[in-house]
User: What shape does this take?
Amino acid sequence: MAAALAARRAGVKDVLLLERDQHLGGVLNQCIHPGFGLHHFKQELTGPEYADRFVRLVQEDRGIEVSLRSFAVRLTGTRELSYLRPGALEEVKARAVILATGCRERTREMITIPGSRPAGVYPAGLAQKMVNMEGWIPGRQAVIVGSGDIGLIMARRLALEGVAVKAVIEIQNVSRGLVRNVVQCLEDFGIPLYFRHRVSRIHGRDRVEKVSVVQVDEELRDIPGSGFEIGCDTVLVSVGLIPENELLEMAGAEMDGRTNTPVAKEVNLTSLPGVFACGNAFKVYDLADWVTRDSELAGRTAAAYLAGAAL
Assistant: This one.
């Protein structure tokens, strides 16, 4: 939305905004905690409040056409885009394309935690959607694997809902999340954070019953005799995000295999003329305010490209 609005302000007359969900706002709609907007709006807002400010501006701008429940399935290097919307398959030949596709979560399988495959193992962001948007409580005793911001925030959220959060297990010697989240979400709620530890096994037949935890050395190798078990019925995995850039790959853009982000000389650019990437699709940010800042830059850059600027 920030990129679309910035492109309009820079003189682009016709903007099509595709959203695969039934509401604008993306992941912000499930982030009901405060901490958004401190830099961009100079106010502390929740995620839905932050998104709503942009939604209102988009709805007021008649030069921006919004297509909800629309899923992009094909993109070519010449900016031919195919997308599914309710009842139809549409094809568009765009002069410029901005990809704001965000990230997906790393899963248990991607960090290879051994053990059985019982119910009760969730990516932290999925659990956040379950609790905040669907009103479902995933379990009663939880262990968080990884100390990313979503995991820290969900530790607090579950505690507020009466779930016993037994521990946050982090394999590194520092937290992956913001310091303020470590303080406000763990320390203020008395939730233990184990650095240099890893979950070595998940136990349970039909439902998670417990996890095995072991301490690791500086080379991330298990320290013999340091293992212990934590009883729980829920495991949330918060071990990082992967930029969602399959459309860019499909279009033939040069990609960094380590980060799944486009290889580019400047922020928001890709190796394909007229194709841009913004927000977490370009790189993973800590704050939504920085996503907005660079997405606005993407909108202005796309407008400059349409005006004939050499990029």
Q: What stands out?
A: The mean pLDDT is 96. The first strand starts at residue 15 and ends at 18. The domain at 107-237 is CATH 3.50.50.60 (FAD/NAD(P)-binding domain).
